[in-house]
Write a structure and sequence with these properties.
Layout: H1 3-44, H2 46-82, H3 86-116, H4 130-141, H5 144-159, H6 163-187, H7 191-215, H8 232-264, H9 267-304, H10 307-334, H11 336-343, H12 350-361, H13 366-381, H14 385-411, H15 414-439, H16 446-450, E1 463-468, H17 471-487, H18 492-513, E2 523-530, E3 533-540, H19 547-553, H20 563-571, E4 574-580, E5 583-589
Antiparallel strand pairs: 1-2, 2-3, 3-5, 4-5
Helix pairs in contact: 1-2, 1-6, 1-7, 1-9, 1-10, 2-3, 2-4, 2-5, 2-8, 2-9, 3-4, 3-5, 4-7, 5-7, 6-7, 8-9, 8-13, 8-14, 9-10, 9-12, 9-13, 10-13, 11-12, 12-15, 13-14, 13-15, 14-15, 17-18, 18-20
Length: about 600
């Protein structure tokens, strides 16, 4: 197996291992929508379902702000992790928490004012739906703080490879949400207010389970309220805004499409569209979870200037994630009728027919969205914000709203579904055209599709990539590093010490890490000549082991203990260890 194939397989295993937790996290909001739809349709009425659908664009506004703060903060923290800057990590984490709370308080106030003083005319003027919507909005206000903080906590827990806690919190939330909906809606007859309160109180439990980890002091991230770096707020917004602008556009798109359906189809169309979107929200958690995993790895890779991992992330997306997504889409289309019967039983009703049609058409846009969002995420992390804005506008509002307006006189309700599929086709084609224009020829490999700058990271001539799967590989890579150093004009002593240091550290992983379990492991080694320094990175997927901590906690009087590690630490200018996304990452500067 060559080095490139081995590195790709290691990354593929990592991305597939992280995927279930991120999908479950993304599914939390979707489950809330499904539960709300079920109780609204079966215990309150179609008007309540219309209110839930009309809240969609408003809820998207909250998601927009949350995505700005979380996206910008996680990308910045990922870059600081790649640079081993602990203080900057804590500063961004703390600023994110404060900004999330302040934003949630403002949104709570706005929702309360709109709901209490009947100011929702800009959403609907339907006399039957409007008062139901106002009460639903009041209940949602109570969940703004845990929603904002819960989204942030989930991302930071993922950076620390603590996804199991998020998974636990998600399962508890789902159970609590169902129980509270049963109590508030079916037993206490609180109708729309009960639907929203069940979701809001469930979010408090969800966030509480996550918060315990940070409050206990176990986290690598610590809140430092004194001397908050408020100047970094603009950096967070600048980085996070392009990726979140699409949600802002989607808010506008939702309002426009709802109005078009209300005028041309009636409120029954809004109900059908909301039902399809709420249940498919569970399916959207698949590409959303995939993107969350990729975003974490992309942000760290940008900080490390690791162009190979960046292209490998995209390769895994095409070869692993996309096939999974296509199978899921086929399953959803085949289950269109059973899905519809969860909410509507009478096949003679127009809402039933519209909903079945939605389940058969709308899922087709998901594979396109997966591709687009991955390329947009890379552009967001690498500072290519103008392209993110263009795609955000096309994907968020122009294509869907435009195609719906053009098609609705001819296709009625189906126009809203078809427009989403056409949107996916157009936006992916725009990505290919952008690469074509930037390269001045049709892209021939992943680096050209991504338009990675030539001066990003170390060139192939200035770096050495190698994969280790056995002790024989350790000896080979040690020799290769010595040869690499001499080729780059470094003295023989430095070449010898660099090879010796790698032989000791990589050999230690093979001898002790590979034998701790029955799994197949690989060590990915990267050596870069940067100025007068040689930077060597050892990355493995074995159990956590910090060699620098082992020396600090060992018996200082016993010099024979861990002698190999002691020699490496003494010979190297700097040695840093991190556990990133469940991977041991040791960086040595010689």
């Amino acid at each position: 197996m060559d080095e490139q194939t081995s590195n790709l397989k290691t990354l593929s295993r990592l991305m597939l291992r992280l995927l279930p937790v991120q999908i479950l996290l993304s599914a939390v909001g979707a489950v809330n929508g499904i539960v709300s739809s079920f109780f609204a349709n079966n215990f309150v009425g179609v008007d309540a379902m219309s209110a839930v659908g009309l809240y969609g664009p408003i809820g998207m506004l909250g998601s927009t702000i949350s995505t700005i703060l979380v996206g910008g903060s996680v990308i910045l923290c990922g870059q600081y992790i790649g640079k081993n800057s602990k203080k900057d990590m804590d500063d961004i984490f703390s600023l994110n928490i404060v900004l999330s709370v302040l934003t949630a308080l403002v949104m709570m106030g706005l929702f309360a004012v709109i709901g209490l003083f009947d100011l929702s005319d800009f959403i609907t003027t339907d006399s039957a739906v409007k008062p139901i919507f106002n009460r639903y909005l009041l209940g949602q206000a109570a969940g703004m703080i845990p929603m904002m903080l819960g989204n942030s906590a989930s991302s930071f827990l993922s950076l620390e490879n603590k996804g199991k806690r998020t998974m636990t919190a998600s399962i508890i939330y789902i159970v609590i949400n169902i129980i509270l909906n049963y109590v508030f809606v079916q037993l206490l007859k609180m109708e729309a207010l009960g639907l929203a309160l069940a979701s809001s109180l469930g979010m408090w439990v969800f966030f509480g389970v996550q918060a315990e980890y940070f409050i206990s002091g176990k986290s690598s991230f610590h809140i430092r309220l004194k001397g908050l770096p408020w100047r970094d707020m603009f950096a967070i917004i600048k980085i996070g805004l392009p990726g979140a602008v699409c949600y802002l556009y989607m808010t506008l798109r939702g309002i426009i499409v709802n109005k078009l359906l209300e005028v041309h189809v009636g409120t029954v169309g809004v109900s059908a569209f909301a039902t399809v979107n709420n249940l498919l929200g569970l399916a959207w958690s698949i590409p959303a979870g995939m993107l969350s995993v990729s975003r974490l790895i992309i942000s760290v890779s940008v900080g490390e200037e690791d162009r190979k991992t960046l292209t490998d992330v995209m390769k895994v997306m095409f070869t692993r994630y996309l096939p999974i997504m296509c199978v899921a889409v086929a399953g959803m289309i085949l289950c269109a009728v059973p899905f519809t019967r969860i909410f509507y039983r009478d096949a003679s009703e127009s809402v039933y027919t519209m909903t079945v049609s939605g389940f058969r058409i709308l899922p087709l846009c998901m594979p396109f969205a997966l591709i687009l969002n991955h390329f947009t995420c890379y552009c967001e992390a690498s500072g290519r914000q103008w392209f993110v804005h263009i795609e955000g506008f096309l994907n968020g509002v122009a294509c869907v709203a435009g195609f719906t307006a053009l098609l609705i006189p001819y296709f009625g309700m189906d126009s809203a579904y078809i427009a989403n599929v056409l949107n996916g086709v157009v936006t992916v084609l725009v990505t290919v055209v952008f690469s074509w224009i930037s390269n001045r020829h049709f892209p021939g490999n992943m680096e050209e599709y991504m338009v990675i700058p030539e001066d990003f990271g170390a060139s192939e001539e200035e770096r050495l990539d190698y994969s280790v799967e056995s002790m024989n590989d350790v000896i080979k890579v040690s020799e290769k590093i010595g040869e690499f150093c001499l080729e780059k004009g470094m003295d023989k002593r430095t070449a010898y010490m660099a090879g010796l240091a790698m032989e000791e550290m990589a050999g230690n992983v093979v001898e002790h890490g590979f034998t701790k379990d029955e799994k197949k492991h690989t060590i990915d080694i990267r050596v870069v000549k940067k100025g007068d320094d040689l930077i060597m990175r050892v990355k493995d997927d074995c159990r956590s082991f910090d060699p620098t901590k082992r020396i600090r906690t060992s018996d200082e009087g016993d010099l024979s203990s861990n002698i190999g590690i002691r020699l490496v630490l003494k010979a190297a200018k700097d040695v840093q260890y991190q556990n990133i996304l469940g991977l041991n990452v040791l960086t040595m500067k010689v």
